[in-house]
């Protein structure tokens, strides 16, 4: 929110670089990093027919 207000004035006018901290976004990124470290992240998208075919065989009727 502060970053948006700061951008209205322009960085050149202020003469300093302002950084803001988005705690919710940092928490989300940390959570994702922990999940990936444990191997619990989102699965990779299959790009070829052969890669996706192996998952179709697992379905039971």
From TrEMBL:
Ranges of Basic residues composition bias in the record: 37-47
Annotated region (Disordered), positions in chain: 37-61
Concerning InterPro entries, the annotation shows: Ribosomal_mS33
Top-rank taxon of the source lineage equals: Eukaryota
What name is this protein filed under? Uncharacterized protein
């Amino acid at each position: 929110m502060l970053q948006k207000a700061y951008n209205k004035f322009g960085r050149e006018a202020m003469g300093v670089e302002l950084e803001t901290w988005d705690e919710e976004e940092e928490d989300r990124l940390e959570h994702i990093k922990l999940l990936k470290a444990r191997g619990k992240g989102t699965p990779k998208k299959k790009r070829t027919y052969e890669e996706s075919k192996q998952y179709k065989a697992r379905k039971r009727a």
